[in-house]
Amino acid sequence: MAPTTANVANEAKVANIKTLTGSELNSVPSEYTYVKNPNDQADASDPEHSIPTIDFAQLTSSSPELRSKAIEELGRACQEWGFFQVINHGVPESLLKSMIEVCHKFFDLPEEEKKEFQSRKLLEPIKCGTSFNVAIDKVRLWRDYLKVIAHPEFHSLHKPAEYSDVSLEFSKQTRQVATELLSGISESLGLEAEYIAKAMNWDRGLQILAANYYPACPQPDLAIGIPPHTDHGLVTLLIQNDMGGLEVQHNGKWVLVDCAPGAFVVNIGDQMQILTNDKYKSVWHRAVVNNRATRISIAVPHGPALETAALPIPELLGGEAPKYIGMSYEEFMELQASPAAYMMPCLDHLRVKAE
Ligand code: OGA
Ligand code: NI
Question: Is Nucleotidyltransferase given among the entry's keywords (predicted)?
Answer without folding.
Answer: no
